Amino acid sequence: MAVTRLFLSLLVLSSCYASAVLPDSEAEQLPLVIWHGLGDEYNADGMKVVSKVAKEVNPQTFVYVIRLDEDGNADRTASFFGNLTLQVEQVCEDLASHPILSTAPAVNALGFSQGGQFLRAYIERCNSPKVANLVTFGSQHNGISDFKTCDATDWLCKGVTALLRGSRWSSFVQSRVVPAQYYRDPEDLENYLEFSNFLASINNERDTKNATYRENLMDLRRFVMYMFAEDSTVIPKETAWFAEVNGTTKEVTKLQDRTIYKEDWLGLRYLDENGKLEFRTAPGEHMRLDEDTLKEAFKKYFGPSKIKGSGNLLQDEL
What we know:
Elements: E1 27-28, E2 32-35, H1 45-57, E3 63-65, H2 72-78, H3 84-97, E4 107-112, H4 114-125, E5 131-137, H5 155-167, H6 171-174, H7 189-195, H8 199-202, H9 211-218, E6 222-228, E7 244-245, E8 252-253, H10 259-262, H11 268-273, E9 277-282, H12 291-301, E10 305-306
Parallel strand pairs: 2-3, 2-4, 4-5, 5-6, 6-9
Antiparallel strand pairs: 1-10, 7-8
Helix pairs in contact: 1-12, 3-4, 4-9
């Protein structure tokens, strides 16, 4: 299992770059909320680069990088260990009480790797402040079915992997090891549905469906999912598009052919049929983001949004 720290060498900044989209009297630049991936931390250099690019592309953007602890090392540890139900609750409370975010008409959201499904959980479970546009890069929306080998000196990763391989469905692991809580093996769905602490819930896969999850996702203006073309870290890489992959035959079942879509458990079919669900491909390996891809996403999805006089977003402005 490799961590998903952003690589600065692959983000070449252009100090003279500015967005071609300028706010007018009816447009407002929404704040941007970012949730980083496994093994990263909110105040890492990579997160600072992303924040800088966001402000270059869309001037006046207020950027908030989600953190589970003000100490960077503790925040990184929390990306490996913790109860995701409690972590999402903490983020809900933090954003709802933030003096700038809580007063905005809405926010935009950017999720890197596991941060993508965590932001989706935020939308489903609280969504206050409301998210207008959700963009995820290499996220595990349909879970992971195997674990990537850790770097030789990454002992934290190795400790997590040992727990995952040995007792992934135990209550101890499901309440403490972050990647275990979005583990999903299509050939072991019985254990997954019974014991999963997180993913089976936010994907509305159990018999009792949560209508609020569906309603909140349907309220998005856009939900954009990027898959990395050469991703060998996330297994399977197609999980970034909510697809399912047979572990034996490697046959890919795309989202539109799955029951979660046909019966619209999460509102994904509604978003798709209304032109609000996008499937995009980013070049290269997992989280090797290049300058052009990142700037394109910021410009296309996080530009100024038109606001009604009441302070609400104009939903038909796509």
